[in-house]
Amino acid sequence: TLQESDFSFRRVDTVRAVGKTTPVTLYQLIGMRAEQTVEHIQEMDTYYTALELYNDGAFTQAARSFHTLQNEYPNEFLYQLYSERCLQMAKNPPKIWDGITDIHLKK
């Protein structure tokens, strides 16, 4: 029987939807934990370091880290998304930053 601990997940973002006060953390299923390679583990370490910089408001440094990841893994759209988001936030930093992405669009 498979358990949650058998799988590898990546934290993608923490978001707060329109009209809500409680943020939700989003995760991506990566695969089976037993099938992770050393390269993948190193990639995740680099990703989480960049994500920590982003969450801390160090947008320029985070953009550099995400850009490096984007160059190494060009098929991974998440790195491009964060690279662009960090560059925009470095140019126009939020007045208050808590590491949570506010979602303003409602369909």
List the keywords.
single chain; 3 strands; alpha+beta; 107 residues; three-stranded mixed beta sheet
Question: What's the short story on this structure?
Answer:
This protein is an alpha+beta fold and 107 residues long.
Give your account of this protein's structure.
This protein is an alpha+beta fold and 107 residues long. 44% of the residues lie in helices and 20% in strands. The protein contains three helices and three strands; from the N terminus they run E-E-H-H-H-E. It has helices at 38-55, 59-72, 77-91; strands spanning 7-16, 24-32, 101-102. The protein has a three-stranded mixed sheet with strand order 2-1-3, with no helix packed on it. Helix 1 runs antiparallel to helix 2 and helix 2 runs antiparallel to helix 3 (77-91). It is globular, with a radius of gyration of 15 Å. The mean pLDDT is 93.
List the helices and strands and how they pair.
Elements: E1 7-16, E2 24-32, H1 38-55, H2 59-72, H3 77-91, E3 101-102
Parallel strand pairs: 1-3
Antiparallel strand pairs: 1-2
Shape: globular
Let me know the largest β-sheet.
Answer: 3 strands, mixed
Structural class: alpha+beta
The span between the termini is: 39 Å
Radius of gyration (CA) equals 15 Å
Low-confidence stretches are none
Number of helices: 3
Helical coverage, percent range: 40-55%
* SSE order, one letter for each helix or strand: EEHHHE
What is the count of β-strands?
Answer: 3
